[in-house]
Amino acid sequence: MPSHRQQLFLTGSIPRALLTLAVPIMLANILQSGYQLTDAFWVGRLGADAVAAVSVSMPVTFLVIAMGSGLAMAGATLTAQYMGAGRPDLVNHVAAQTMLMVTITSIVLGAIGFILAPHLLRLLGVTDAVYAGALGFMRVSFIGVIFVFIYIMFQSLMRGVGQTRVPLLIVLGTVILNFGLDPLFIFGWGPLPGHGVMGAAMATLTTQAIAAGIGLIIFLRGRHGIQLAWRGLKPDMLYIRKAFFLGFPGSVELSTRGLGLMVMSFLVASFGTLTIAAYGIGSNILQVITIPAMGLSMAVSTLVGQNMGAGNVQRASNITQLAALYAFIGLSLVGLLVYTIAPQIVAFFVPGDAGVISEGARFIRIMALAWGGIGIQLCVVAAFRASGNMVSAMVIALVTQWMLQFPLAYVLSKHSTLGAEGIWWSFPITNILVALISLCWFARGSWKHTRLTEDERQTVKVTDEALSEEGYR
Predict the structure, then answer these.
(1) Residue 360 in contact with residue 277, Cβ under 8 Å?
(2) Coarse DSSP helix, strand, coil percentages of the chain, rounded to the nearest 5 percent
(3) What does pTM read for this prediction?
(4) Where are the transmembrane segments (predicted)?
(5) What does 141-206 look like in DSSP terms, one character per residue?
(6) Are 98 and 75 in contact (CB under 8 A)?
(7) What span, in angstroms and rounded, lies between the C-alpha atoms of 183 and 177?
């Protein structure tokens, strides 16, 4: 018998279902961004070189995290569809196998990133003043990749079953802790030495390790929709193969976005420390203002996944359309507000540096009025992923980064009179074009014909046998 929340997701009011899921996710994402904002706030007190060190490091670590995140994405998609199809046994199996895959992947990628960090920074062409801080920040971040992966997986799987409040409470506690640890690790206190830029990464690593540990305990206790058992960690190669082929396009998609940010950093770095600092602050602002749309898109993922699993295809389509409209209106209004107070926002992060304030405000104002397009893209791509059409989401990401964003940024900045401002203009142009492409693709309707719970019946049969051996059934 479906729970009250399950009935709301599958048959109830769509606006209410979206708000029920999206509001806790938005709040959690706002708090999650507190890691970056807290780092930016305290590191900004060290000067432009320190801000540049974090700005250069973030795209590299994001790329490594993105390479493994497709597996968590596949787990969340399968969790939502199996939940909608009324298969809690397979939900638990998905959780255990995703945990196994994500842990192994994070260890391998974190080790590779740690070893290659100096070479990556040299490739980026950072100055000697920025290099030492960036290397320390990047290496500590790579050590913490395993905790980041585990907690991303925890949040994704919990969203798949419609549980969003518990992750919110965990993030609230760890962000508060991070705010206290940041100045302690960056500047030191009493006998404790300060570690500068690297201290910000150390504070984040500590709090994310705590969050990952709490997530594992919750899964093992099984009180919130997912019951993780140690025996479930025995590799199920049939499921792993299915999850890999489902998640691989997702990894390519996220890696493409991460690589795009990294390549963009090359271009930004060629214009000097001032432009790097402005880009870093503008990128942080962009992450924050997209939080409402991200919350809606994650709610879309859960609702579309569960409704596709239950066979409610038209309802899944209606959910996506309504969410995209909400996101477009919301981000457009936020963009208008931010446009009017851009200098004050930048000054909050880098007080007293008139050059960074001026350039950062210019970047924010140029891209702000087109933010509504980001909302549309996020919600449509979320529906593609949740229905199992990871390839569609991947193609949109490839078009965004390599056919639009970077070529525009390069041509406008290097082959026009705009200079660094050409990079800024690539953002609104890309956002508008990709929103239109996403809407056209969605209107074709080909995504509606994929339902993972109806495919590969032999896979489900074999997995059922594995579940029986593990004691789930």
Answers:
(1) yes
(2) 85, 0, 15
(3) 0.77
(4) 7-31, 51-78, 90-117, 129-154, 166-190, 196-220, 259-279, 285-304, 325-350, 362-384, 391-411, 423-443
(5) HHHTHHHHHHHHHHHHHHHHTT--HHHHHHHHHHHHHHHHHHHHHHH-BTTBPP-THHHHHHHHHH
(6) yes
(7) 11
* Mean pLDDT for the chain overall: 83
d(CA 230, CA 355): 55
pLDDT digit string, tens, across residues 93-145: 888 888 888 888 889 988 998 998 888 888 877 778 888 888 888 899 899 88
Instruction: Give residue 456's identity as a one-letter amino acid code.
Output: E
User: Looking at this protein, which amino acid is placed at residue 311?
Assistant: G
Tokens found for residue 404: 């639009």
Name the DSSP class of 430. H
Nearby residues of 82 by Cβ (< 8 Å), 6 or more positions away: 88, 90, 91, 94, 309, 453
Domain residue ranges in the chain: 17-470
Where does residue 196 fall: left (phi above 0), alpha (psi -120 to 50 degrees), or beta otherwise?
Answer: left
Contact (CB, 8 A) for 368 and 432: no
How many C-beta atoms lie closer than 10 Å to residue 383's C-beta? 29
Tokens of 41: 């706030």
- Helix 313-340 and helix 421-444, axial crossing angle in degrees, nearest 10: 160
> Whole-angstrom distance between the N-terminal and C-terminal Cα of the chain?
18
Fill in the DSSP letter of residue 416. Answer: S
Q: Which residues of the chain have pLDDT under 70?
A: 1-3, 258, 450-473
